[in-house]
Design brief:
Elements (H helix, E strand, L loop, with lengths): L1 H10 L3 E3 L6 H11 L2 E2 L6 E3 L4 E8 L3 E8 L3 E7 L2
Antiparallel strand pairs: 1-6, 2-4, 3-4, 4-5, 5-6
Length: about 80
């Protein structure tokens, strides 16, 4: 999975949809290994019963990316913000 995420970030594409669910912590660890830092200062941003979530990560080299999805439905994705 690390290689897929790295390839996406280096490609300059705007959106990466995960084909399978995986622990958010694992995705966070991969992003930190690549050089991103977590921008969340107040903890997790979630809403509703399906637990939609949004996490922002920043890298001086690659910019800001948002990891979002639903813990109920999945649909995890990384989106380039800037």
């Amino acid at each position: 999975m690390k290689k897929l995420i790295q390839d996406f970030i280096k490609s300059g594409e705007q959106e990466f949809k995960f084909q399978q669910m995986m622990p958010i912590r694992d995705i966070e660890d991969i992003l930190k290994e690549i050089g991103f830092e977590d921008l969340e200062l107040s903890g997790a941003e979630t809403n509703g019963w399906q637990i939609d979530f949004w996490y922002n990560f920043q890298s001086s080299e690659y910019g800001v990316y948002e990891l979002s999805g639903s813990l109920h439905y999945g649909d995890f994705q990384l989106i380039k913000q800037s």
